[in-house]
Design goal:
Elements lengths: L5 H10 L19 H5 L9 H12 L5 H4 L23 H5 L3 H10 L15 H13 L39
Helix pairs in contact: 3-7, 6-7
């Protein structure tokens, strides 16, 4: 990110801080009336290590994602303490389990109302946004990708295999239980 645009991003993020209580991690990020549109989006980029490296460079550079989401994607960047709700933790398996790549693309491009997540459509091209997603997903390690690319995302599936109905089945270090 250019040094001259960083202060602008900080101001915009600060102004976007909601007074509402923190959202639950499983709450959808995309407005309900745009969810079908977002879920229909599919990355045009190949799933290669080159794309992951491009995403990494954007995350730590031009996109400035690390400022809020942290260098390791766990939501504890230098600006995170000022944000309510706190930035998403990309390392948490639940975040990826219930979202499609289209939903993530939509939020990066357009922002997420009620949070400090502003849209980056004026800073990043669509291709750059798509290249961020495999890098973001890499933070989850073996816990991801869940619904990524399957078109289901978070929604009416509340039984076996997804949604809140299966969260009690979580085992292991990445579950937070």
């Amino acid at each position: 990110m250019k040094l001259s645009t960083f202060p602008l991003v900080v101001v915009v993020v600060s102004l976007a801080l909601p007074a509402a209580a923190e959202r639950h991690m499983m709450q959808p990020l995309v407005p309900a009336d745009k969810l079908a549109e977002a879920r229909a989006l599919v990355s045009p980029l190949p799933g290669t290590s080159k794309i992951v490296e491009q995403g990494k460079a954007l995350y730590h550079g031009k996109g400035g994602c690390f400022n809020c989401h942290g260098k390791d994607g766990d939501g504890d960047g230098p600006l995170a303490a000022q944000l309510k709700p706190t930035p998403r933790n990309f390392r948490h398996h639940g975040f990826w389990r219930h979202r499609t790549e289209g939903e993530i693309f939509w939020v990066i491009k357009k922002g997420s109302a009620g949070t400090g997540m502003v849209g980056f459509s004026e800073l990043l091209t669509d291709e750059e946004i798509w290249s961020l997603i495999p890098y973001l997903r890499s933070f989850a390690g073996e816990q991801g990708p869940g619904m990524m690319g399957h078109g289901g995302g978070m929604g009416p599936m509340m039984g076996d295999g997804g949604g809140v109905g299966s969260m009690g089945d979580c085992k292991g270090e990445g579950c937070g239980q």
